[in-house]
Design goal:
The chain contains one helix and no strands. It is rod-shaped, with a radius of gyration of 10 Å. By secondary structure, it is mostly helical.
């Protein structure tokens, strides 16, 4: 089951991309 992990991974990926592309 990778439901919680998927959401966490998506959040981490979005955060990293937003921080890298947003900064």
């Amino acid at each position: 089951m990778r439901l919680g992990r998927t959401r966490a991974e998506l959040r981490a990926l979005n955060f990293g991309v937003s921080a890298r592309f947003g900064s």
